[in-house]
C-alpha cells in the first residue's frame, strides 16, 4: 500500500483517538492518526487530567507539610513554595506521558500525520500541516476531536487574567483572589490547587449546589469540607458583567432567580462552566455528518455516524466527557471494526473528582433512582469509624451503596473520602459482574484498609454494619 492509504484514519490524538489507533493497529489494521497539536495525548495528557493531577498532588504535599503533619507529631519548619519548580515538575510529568504515547505509536507502527484533519469525502481526509496532503481510509474514519472550553458571554478569556483551565495550569504567580465561575469538576479541582497555594478562592455557581450532577449528599458534604478548607461559595448566582481593572477584574454577580447585584473583585478569574464538542473546520457539514442540538456528533450503538464509514468517539459524542470513557469507546470501536462483538457498558463509568478528600461515583444517584421510581435501599458508612482512616488522620467522608430493594443488585455507589478514586474500581468490577450488596458484604476485605468502609456500607444496606 502507498504511504497515503490506510485502513483506519483517526482524527485526534487524545485518549479516545490514540487508544483507538493502538487497538486498531494491534488488530492488524494499517492506521494513521491526525493530530494538529505539537504532541500526542490530547486535552487529557497536555492540558487536562495529567497536569491538573500533578499540580493537585504537589499542592497537597505543600499543604500537608505546612499544616497537616503536626497532629501526627511531625514538625516541619520553613515550608516554602517554589512555584516555578512546581510548574516544572508538572511539565515534566506531561512530557513523559505525551512522549510515551509517541513511543507507543512507533511501537505499533501507527503513522502520526501532523496537522489539521478535514474530511473531504467518505474515506478521504485532507491533512493541512507543513504541507497539505490527502490520505484515504478504506475501512473507517474515526472522529476523536474531543472538546473545548465553553465560553461565557461577556468574558474574554486571555489565559492570564481571565483564564480557562488551560491558563489556570500555568499561572506565573499565586493570585491573591481567585474567582472561579462554575462549581463543577474543574472549578473545584483547580480552585483547590490555588487555594492550597494561598489564594482566596470564591466559587460562583449558577445552580443551588456544587457538583450538581452528582449525588446530592456528595454535593452537600463537599461544600462543607471545601468550605472548612477556606473556599467560599456563592451558589444560585450568575455573573452578569466583568470589567478589567489595573489589577484584576471586577465581576458583577446577581442571584440566578433575580435580585440585587453585588460586586466581586478578583486578581484572576477562572471560567469553568463546562466543555463543548470540538468539530471546527472538520468538514462535517460538507460530508453531511449529523450533530445533535448540543453540537455532538450523532452516532449509533456501533459509534457509526449517519455517513457509512465515518465513526466518532470520546468527548465529541454523547456521554460524560471523561478520558476513560473515550478510551473504552476507542478500544471497542477498533474491535468492532475487526468484526468482534465488543461493547461499552455506559451504565458503569466511574467519575472521580481529585479534590482532597476525593469524590468517586458510579451508577445511579439517589435522585436518579427516585425520578425513575426505582425502589432501592441505601447503606452508608463513614470514614470516621474506620481504623485505617484514623491511622492516616484522614477521616472526612463516607461510602454510600445503593441497591435494588427487591433483588439487592448494586445500582450505584457514591463516595467521599481518602483515595476513593482508587476504591471505586472495586465497585465497578462488582457492578460489571452484576453483584448484589450482599456479594460485596461477603467478600473478605483486608484489615486495616480504607476499603473496609465499602464492605461496611454494603453491610449497612441491610442494617448490619459491624462498626457503627
Ligand atoms: P481530546 O483529549 O480533547 O483530544 C482531541 C484531540 O484532537 C486534541 O489533541 C486536538 O488537538 C485534536 N484535534 C481536534 N480537531 C482536530 C483536527 N481537525 N485535526 C487534527 N487534530 C484535531 N477526564 C478524566 O477522565 N479524568 C480527569 O482527571 C480529567 N481531568 C481533566 C482536567 C481538565 C483541566 C480538563 C480540561 C479535562 C479533564 N478531563 C478528565 C477530561 C478529559 O481530558 C477528556 O474527557 C478527554 O481528553 C477526552 O478525550 P478525547 O480523545 O475525546 O478528546
Ligand atoms: P462541569 O460540567 O463539571 O461544571 C460546570 C459547572 O458550571 C456546573 O456546576 C454548572 O452548573 C456551572 N455553570 C454553568 N454555567 C454557569 C454560569 N453561567 N455561571 C455559573 N456557573 C455555571 O464542567 P467543568 O468543570 O468545566 O469541566 C468540564 C468537563 O471536563 C466535565 O464534563 C468533566 O467531565 C471533565 N473533567 C473531568 C475531571 C475529572 O474526571 N476529574 C476533571 C476536570 C474536568
From TrEMBL:
EC number, as in UniProt: 1.8.1.4
Pfam families referenced in this protein's UniProt entry, alphabetically: Pyr_redox_2 (PF07992), Pyr_redox_dim (PF02852)
Cited InterPro entries: Class-I_Pyr_Nuc-Dis_Oxidored, FAD/NAD-bd_sf, FAD/NAD-binding_dom, FAD/NAD-linked_Rdtase_dimer_sf, Lipoamide_DH, Pyr_nuc-diS_OxRdtase, Pyr_nucl-diS_OxRdtase_dimer, Pyr_OxRdtase_I_AS
Descriptive protein name: Dihydrolipoyl dehydrogenase
Domain FAD/NAD(P)-binding: 6-330
Phosphoprotein keyword on record: no
Keyword set includes Ubl conjugation: no
Parts of the chain that traverse the membrane: none
Other remarks in the entry: The active site is a redox-active disulfide bond.
Organism: Azospirillum oleiclasticum
Family from the record: Belongs to the class-I pyridine nucleotide-disulfide oxidoreductase family.
Amino acid at each position: 500500500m502507498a504511504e497515503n492509504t490506510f485502513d483506519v484514519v483517526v482524527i485526534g490524538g487524545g485518549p479516545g483517538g490514540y487508544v483507538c489507533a493502538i487497538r486498531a493497529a494491534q488488530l492488524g489494521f494499517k492506521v494513521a492518526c491526525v493530530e494538529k497539536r505539537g504532541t500526542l495525548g490530547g486535552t487529557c495528557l497536555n492540558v487536562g487530567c495529567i497536569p491538573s493531577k500533578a499540580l493537585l498532588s504537589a499542592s497537597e504535599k505543600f499543604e500537608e507539610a505546612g499544616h497537616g503533619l503536626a497532629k501526627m507529631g511531625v514538625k516541619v519548619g520553613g515550608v516554602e513554595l517554589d512555584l516555578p519548580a512546581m510548574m516544572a515538575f508538572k511539565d515534566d510529568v506531561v512530557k513523559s506521558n505525551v512522549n510515551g504515547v509517541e513511543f507507543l505509536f512507533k511501537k505499533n507502527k501507527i503513522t502520526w500525520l501532523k496537522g489539521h484533519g478535514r474530511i473531504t469525502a467518505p474515506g478521504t481526509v485532507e491533512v493541512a500541516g507543513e504541507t497539505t496532503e490527502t490520505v484515504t481510509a478504506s475501512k473507517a474514519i474515526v472522529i476523536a476531536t474531543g472538546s473545548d472550553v465553553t465560553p461565557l458571554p461577556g468574558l474574554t478569556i486571555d489565559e492570564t487574567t481571565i483564564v480557562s483551565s488551560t491558563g489556570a495550569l500555568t499561572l506565573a504567580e499565586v493570585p491573591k483572589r481567585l474567582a472561579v465561575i462554575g462549581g463543577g469538576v474543574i472549578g473545584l479541582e483547580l480552585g483547590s490547587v490555588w487555594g492550597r497555594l494561598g489564594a482566596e478562592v470564591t466559587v460562583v455557581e449558577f445552580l443551588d449546589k456544587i457538583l450538581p450532577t452528582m449525588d446530592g449528599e456528595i454535593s452537600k458534604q463537599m461544600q462543607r469540607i471545601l468550605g472548612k478548607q477556606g473556599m467560599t461559595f456563592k451558589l444560585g448566582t450568575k455573573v452578569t458583567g466583568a470589567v478589567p481593572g489595573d489589577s484584576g477584574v471586577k465581576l458583577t454577580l446577581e442571584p440566578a432567580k433575580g435580585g440585587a447585584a453585588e460586586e466581586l473583585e478578583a486578581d484572576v478569574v477562572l471560567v469553568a462552566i463546562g466543555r463543548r464538542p470540538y468539530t471546527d473546520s472538520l468538514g462535517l457539514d460538507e460530508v453531511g455528518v449529523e450533530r445533535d442540538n448540543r453540537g455532538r456528533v450523532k452516532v449509533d450503538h456501533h459509534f457509526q455516524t449517519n455517513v457509512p464509514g465515518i465513526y466518532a468517539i470520546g468527548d465529541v459524542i454523547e456521554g460524560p466527557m471523561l478520558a476513560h470513557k473515550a478510551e473504552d469507546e476507542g478500544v471497542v470501536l477498533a474491535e468492532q471494526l475487526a468484526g468482534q462483538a465488543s461493547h461499552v457498558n455506559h451504565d458503569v463509568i466511574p467519575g472521580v473528582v481529585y479534590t482532597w478528600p476525593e469524590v468517586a461515583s458510579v451508577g445511579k444517584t439517589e435522585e436518579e433512582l427516585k425520578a425513575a421510581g426505582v425502589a432501592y435501599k441505601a447503606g452508608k458508612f463513614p470514614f470516621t469509624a474506620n481504623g485505617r482512616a484514623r491511622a492516616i488522620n484522614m477521616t472526612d467522608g463516607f461510602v454510600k451503596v445503593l441497591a435494588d430493594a427487591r433483588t439487592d443488585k448494586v445500582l450505584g455507589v457514591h463516595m467521599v473520602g481518602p483515595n476513593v478514586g482508587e476504591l471505586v474500581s472495586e465497585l465497578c468490577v462488582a457492578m460489571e459482574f452484576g453483584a448484589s450488596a450482599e456479594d460485596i458484604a461477603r467478600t473478605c476485605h483486608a484489615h486495616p484498609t480504607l476499603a473496609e468502609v465499602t464492605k461496611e456500607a454494603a453491610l449497612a444496606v441491610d442494617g448490619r454494619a459491624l462498626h457503627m
